[in-house]
């Protein structure tokens, strides 16, 4: 399942931007340079991952803490970690969403799509004792998963002119 809260993540454009200086090279030198770039990127990310001490990636924690500020919602607690979260729009229209912490769902669907608790869920979670918003983040955003993503290695290679 995709854990992306936007649809405009065009991987081809990103890759082309990343290799824009190398694209003019002939195919074999281009492929060799891309191999080097990936090798270096993996090393940088592994080094970064070794600096992380928390369970969840730092930029995700920061975002969740920012989104938890100044929430002015009304919580109507239900049974077994469920609640209705109610608020009012700028146009003074009342809205209500249902949050289920055990199933990591909210009727706004943002939590299910991104894997990150929406503001409705955050409001409910922070109102409870001995609960942390980080406990409700999908494992996709964990430091462990980040480390696994960059655990692979690409071995350095001798210049092909020296292989004969």
Structure report:
The protein has 164 residues and is α+β, with helices and mostly antiparallel strands. The protein has 2 domains: 41 residues; 84 residues, no CATH class. Helix content is 39%, strand content 12%. It has a 4-stranded antiparallel beta sheet. The longest helix is centred in the first third of the chain and has 25 residues.
Can you summarize this structure?
The chain has helices at residues 11-18, 27-51, 58-67, 110-114, 119-127, 143-149; strands spanning 74-77, 82-88, 94-100, 105-106.
Throw out a few tags for this protein.
6 helices, 164 residues, 12% strand, alpha+beta, 39% helix, four-stranded antiparallel β-sheet
Helix and strand arrangement:
Elements (H helix, E strand, L loop, with lengths): L10 H8 L8 H25 L6 H10 L6 E4 L4 E7 L5 E7 L4 E2 L3 H5 L4 H9 L15 H7 L15
Antiparallel strand pairs: 1-2, 2-3, 3-4
- In total, how many domains does the architecture comprise? 2
| Sheet with most strands: strand arrangement | 1-2-3-4
Number of helices: 6
Strand content range: 5-15%
* Low confidence ranges: none
What is the alpha-carbon Rg in Å? 22 Å
Average pLDDT level: 91
- Helix % is 25-40%
- Total E-strand runs: 4
**First CA to last CA: what distance?**
47 Å
Q: Sum up the overall morphology in one term.
A: elongated
Q: Pairing-aware structural class of the strands and helices?
A: alpha+beta
Q: What is the chain-wise order of helices and strands? A: HHHEEEEHHH
Sheet with most strands? 4 strands, antiparallel
